[in-house]
Design goal:
Length: 460
């Protein structure tokens, strides 16, 4: 069997990390098994769906490298197919028209709740042998209801939850077409999964209650349902379900904030799956290891500090040249054009950074003016050290501009003025980089332009 998975978001708002994890696992399972990953846009909610939301879904997946093999398919473009299947179901007696009005349904529910019964459709319009149906009201367009099996249970072995069972008597006859003939969500999903030959449905556990209804529709259409894996919810840092309302950010905002796609994949993977105690791994390792047997059954909790730590590990391990491309993009947003020094700058400073934005902050000091704080100047640029700064500047006018020569000039200046290394290095860092805390001074100066260093030292 060739594995075929899908990600089927509704474009009713921006896509956040909780949503994108529901794309990551089916993508990873398809890639790990040599299968096919399909993108399907479930856009039947016309009032809330938007092209802008579709664009963010596709942009976010592209940034994370979650490439799809087929699609995107749009449900609104498949209406003719759904209506054809509905017609077949009508012909086979699998569905029936129901003329119960919204007011009648509401009244029914109120009576059931008053009697402490579960609110559900009572089958008033369901045809049965020997049953007399109510007279058809004039001018009322019916909905179509699916004739759900009576008695018995719907059972499946969920790859996350284990054995799940629903009694058919708990499931009322689902509306699968509205009065205007447009099909409803649960029906469209089943037709799509059949037509696209989906073998594994990996999705959030907010869909668990839909699953027994969908399984019954599959079987009514003569098809076996796919394998299901219902993922636990992703919670935010306050322990609430991650959502826009609860402060979740669009996936693309993490890109703009300087996170690496491979780090995001690493972090998201660990929000509901594990491979022993491995915390940091590459995309390639993830795909080698991934299967559905190690999906967690408890809710994952988002932790931005942990995400930043994971990102820092990936940033440190990244090739300097590849990293410099991303940092150059961050600099370009600030109107700064980088040059051939940037890969070496990235290599020098990346151990101190957890995002490409933080790395761009350091790199900017090599391309734009720096302004040390008054506190740094007062603490480090003293009358005692100013003569030494002048001496160093004079030595840097014509010394060779390499690390060894710069180191020698710094040591000669320290010796000449009877200083210790920090007494000279700190003020030079403040003047040249705007802060007293940097990597090795000779390595920093080597990457700076000679005239820039001399000009900044003159500001002592």
């Amino acid at each position: 069997m060739t594995v075929r998975t899908r990600f089927a978001p509704s474009p009713t708002g921006f896509i956040h990390l909780g949503n994108i994890r529901s794309a990551l696992y089916p993508w990873a399972f398809a890639r790990a098994t040599g299968g096919t990953f399909i993108l399907r846009i479930e856009d039947t909610d016309l009032e809330r769906s938007s092209q802008a939301a579709v664009d963010v879904i596709i942009e976010g997946m592209k940034w994370l490298g979650l490439d799809h093999d087929e699609g995107p398919f749009y449900q609104m473009q498949r209406m003719d197919r759904y209506k054809a299947v509905l017609a077949e179901m009508v012909e086979k007696g699998l569905v029936y028209p129901c003329y119960m009005s919204v007011a009648e349904l509401d009244a029914l529910r109120e009576r059931q709740m008053a009697n402490k019964e579960k609110p559900r459709y009572d089958g008033t319009w369901r045809p049965e042998p020997g049953k007399t149906l109510p007279p058809i009201p004039e001018g009322v367009k019916p909905v179509l209801r699916f004739r759900n099996p009576q008695g018995g249970s719907v059972v499946w072995e969920d790859k996350v939850k284990g054995r799940v069972e629903f009694s058919n008597d708990e499931l009322d006859d689902l509306v699968i077409a509205r009065p205007d003939g447009t099909p409803t969500y649960n029906f469209c999903v089943v037709v799509d999964d059949i037509d696209m030959a989906i073998t594994h449905v990996i999705r959030g556990d907010d869909h668990v209650n839909n699953t027994p209804r969908q399984i019954n529709i599959f079987r009514a259409l003569g098809k076996e349902p796919p394998v299901y894996a219902h993922l636990p919810t992703v919670l935010n840092e306050q322990g609430e379900k991650m959502s826009k309302r609860n402060g979740a950010k669009p996936v693309t905002q993490y890109r703009d904030e300087g996170y690496l796609p491979d780090a995001m994949v690493n972090y998201l993977a660990r929000l509901g799956w594990s491979h022993g105690d491995d915390e940091i791994f590459s995309r390639e390792q993830f795909l080698q290891w991934f299967n559905l047997d190690h999906l967690g059954s408890s809710a994952g909790r988002f932790d931005e500090a942990k995400l930043r730590w994971v990102n820092a590990q990936h940033l440190k391990a990244m090739d300097d040249a590849a990293l410099s491309v991303l940092v150059a993009e961050q600099l370009a947003k600030r109107g700064i054009a980088a040059d051939e020094r940037l890969p070496r700058i990235c290599g020098l400073f990346k151990d101190r950074c957890d995002t490409t934005v933080a790395l761009a902050d350091w790199a900017a000091a090599f391309y734009t003016d720096v302004t040390p704080s008054d506190a740094e100047r007062t603490q480090h640029i003293t009358d005692v050290v100013r003569p030494a700064l002048q001496t160093l500047a004079s030595k840097l006018v014509d010394c060779a501009w390499d690390k060894a020569s710069l180191s020698a000039a710094i040591k000669e200046t320290i010796t000449a003025h009877g200083l210790k290394m920090p007494q000279l290095a700190m003020p030079v860092r403040v003047l040249v980089m705007g802060t007293a805390q940097t990597p090795s001074l000779d390595a920093v100066l080597e990457l700076q332009n000679r005239q820039t260093v001399l000009t900044r030292l003159q500001k002592a």
